[in-house]
User: Fold this.
Amino acid sequence: MTDTKVYLLDGGSLVLDGFHVFWNRGPGGEVRFPVYSILVEHAEGRFLIDTGFDYDHVMKVLPFEKPIQSKEQTIPGALGLLGLEPKDVGVVINSHFHFDHCGGNKYFPHAKKICHKSEVAQACNPQPFEHLGYSDLSFSVEAAEARGATSQLLAGTTRQNSTFEGVEGNVDLAKGVKLIATPGHSIGHYSLLVEFQTRRPILFTIDAAYTQKSLETLCQAAFHIDPVAGVESMRLVKKLAEDHDAELMFSHDMENFLAYRTGTQFYG
Assistant:
């Protein structure tokens, strides 16, 4: 069997205040952080985990996050660097539906889509403090209708192409590719563990821990629904990394991201 390959699709960057990145800890001041998607090329198919942010949506709704995104950092552009198009991806998984993880879903009307069974419902009726997080509703007719935001939907969008397979608990996507339930940041948040034949596994924290410092200090981001569950999920991530001798990769850690392989480079 051909060994699994993992590509990190650079999706640009955003800005948050340090007290949002490190809840109740800081230090304050602007922190620019990366956004990326994870493409897993596997003998059982191509799996895309998360689809980044939509630049126009951020500029309209969250301009204070100062988005930077080139054409090559859009999902079609990042796939194009690999000689691929959105139609070449068969399965899209959303770790959760905060705006910086679902902005490119619109490019995959053909794909099978997977999320935690609670995430669409939460996007339909988020807690008051979650509204900005769940502000891009272009991924779901159901969510857009529930929130009176059908103007976000692309022309021709149907319920059929925004239907998700709801899952819960840990989920094996393919041999050696596993979603790890890590709630707290959102109600149905998932991290990702990928195993290889020729190298150490990689455990992608996704938003269970924005940065290496977040995990080391058990300090989650200010954007969360359940801080106690969030700390427990970070402890779980630490233990899994130890148990599997896995390399940890963080979702929004610019210092680490600058050393990650992106573009046509891959892990495998």
Observations:
- The radius of gyration is 17 Å.
- The first helix runs from residue 18 to 21.
